[in-house]
Amino acid sequence: MTEEVLLAESKQLKLEELGHQLQLARQAKELSQQDVSNTLRLSLKQISDLENNNFSSLPEPMVTRGFIRNYARLLGLDAEPLLAAYRAQVPDRLPDSIVTQSSIRYEMPVKQSRLSFKFILIALIFISAILMWYFNASHSTKVLSEKHSVTSFNQNLTTTLPEVALPLAERMSDATSGTEIALPPMTNSTTPIAQQSPLISDKSSSKPEDEAKPEPKPSSLVAKTVSITCTEATWIQVKDKMGKVVVEKKIAAGASESFEGDAPLRVRIGNAKATQITFAGKPVDLVAVTEKNVARLILE
Question: What does the angle CA 248 – CA 253 – CA 257 come to, to the nearest 5 degrees?
């Protein structure tokens, strides 16, 4: 009896009663919203919106009419009165308006952003290519200018540098290379050869005896004799003007030593109080140069 009453009431149904009618039929079938969701593959929210007449939250009218039709078949109701009540209050919307609205909200920004990204990428590639070309061109121009400047500098250097004057011997050799030197004619005059030819040095006319004579050494470089007499054992060291050790030895008590060396001579005596020294035949006073029985003096 309940299903017949529902079928009769659905023929004269208002929009606000549409959802209530579906809810009553579901409860009469002892079905839960989860059972309907599992069968019709609808979400629990969509089923709740249908039963509470919240059609503004549902998809477009064509899709919502499909929900109503499938729900009515599941409950065993006549779907036409329910659809008629829905059509009377919710007219169909043009599909173009949906496409237009969705294209403005979702599609256009994506396409525009993709186009902007492509444009920016192309612009960056183009700018990079221009910069690389400019860098290569400037670098090659700089290298060419440096090569040109170096070449011009070398040319200017070779043209502006003065000719170096050669020594007299080299200039004479260059001038006489490939030619014969004309010797002065032989004459019967009694003029010495050294006076006839200016090319012969005056040194050739000097006597061999003059060249063989050794040059006298300065008085400071003449080797002089040093004599030492010791009353006690002492130690002595003598260095010549070049710092070479002439004598370095220990002299026994009562002994005398003599040696020669190039003055000035640097002498160091270990036991100065028991030592007497003569240089070039003259006695040397050791008292003034002795400290702690060690004498240090220079003989010139």
Answer: 45
Closest CA relative to residue 68, chosen from 58, 55, 83: 83
Domain residue ranges of the chain, discontinuous segments joined by +: 2-89, 95-141, 221-299
**Tens of pLDDT, residues 161-185:** 455 454 555 555 454 445 444 444 5
CATH code matching the domain that covers 221-299, chosen among 3.40.1400, 2.60.40, 1.25.40, 2.60.120: 2.60.40
pLDDT tens track for 87-130: 887 776 544 444 444 444 444 455 667 778 888 999 999 999 99
DSSP 217: P
Question: Residue 46 and residue 75: Cα distance in Å, rounded?
Answer: 16
Report angle CA 12, 15, 17 to the nearest 5 degrees. 70
Helix (H) or strand (E) holding 160: helix 108-160
3-state secondary structure 165-181: CCCHHHHHHHHHCCCCC
How many angstroms separate the CA atoms of 281 and 80, rounded? 162
